[in-house]
Model the fold of this input.
Amino acid sequence: MRFDIVTIFTRMFDSPLAESILKRAVEAGKIEVHRHDIRDHTTDAHRSVDDTPYGGGAGMVMRPEPLVRCVESLPEAGKRCRILMTPQGETLTQDIVRELASFNQLVLICGRYEGIDERAIKLVCDRELSIGDYVLAGGEIPAMVVIDAVTRLIPGVLGNEDSVRSESFEDGLLEYPHYTRPEVFRDEKVPDVLLSGHHAEIAKWRRKEAVLRTFKRRPDMLKAADLTEEERRSLELTKPMKTAK
Ligand code: 9D3
Done:
C-alpha cells in the first residue's frame, strides 16, 4: 500500500510512523508513506494556502490552486482513492477500513481552517471521511487513524492473522475481559475458570462476557451481532421488565 499525505503539517506524522506496527510495516516494505507539503505548490512570495471566505463570515478557507496542484503532482500507483479528511465526511467504520485496504494507493488530504474551496474538493477528491462527531484542529490525526487502521489489515503486518479475524467489530461484539499475572492483584483474583485449563469452559465464559459487555456498553451493536437464539433469549431476561400503564 502506498499512502500519500497532503498537508501543511508534514512533521505531525514523524512520531506515529517511527514506532511500533507502522514503523515495522514501513521497514518491511508493506507500506510506503509519502508526505507532501501543500505550501511547496504555492506560487506567491508569501506561500499562502488560505484566504478569506466569499460571502463573509469567520475563519479562513483553503485556497484551491496549491491544493489541486499538489494532488495533481502525485504519481498514480495502481488502484487509487483520494480521500479528503473533513468533519463533513462519512464516518469511518471498520467496513470502510476493509474497503480502503483493497486499494494500492490512498491519497489522504488533510483539511485545515474552516474549510476547503468546494471546487478543489470536486476536482481532486473521490471520497470524504470523518473519524467521528467531535471537533479536531485538522485532518492530520484523522489521516493517521486511517493509515493505522488500514495498515494492520495488510497481510503480514500483524504477524498473527488470527488476531485480525477474532477481534472486536469483526464478529460484531466487544471483547471479553483480559487478565495476566499476578493471580491476585490488589485483592482482585483472576476468574477461576481462566486458571482451570478447561478450554471449552474458557471459550464459553469469554463468549458470555463478550455478549453481556456488548449488551451493557454498546446495545446499538447487538442488532447486527452474530448471536444464537439462546443468547438473544438470555439478554431478553436481563432487560428491565415492561410494566403495565
Ligand atoms: C464551525 C464548523 N466547524 C466544522 C465542524 C469548522 C471546522 C472545525 C474543525 C472545520 C474543520 C475542522 C478540522 N477538523 C478536521 O479537519 C477533521 C475532523 C474533525 O474535526 N473531526 C472528526 N473527523 C475529522 S476529519 C477532519
About this structure: The chain has a mean pLDDT of 95.
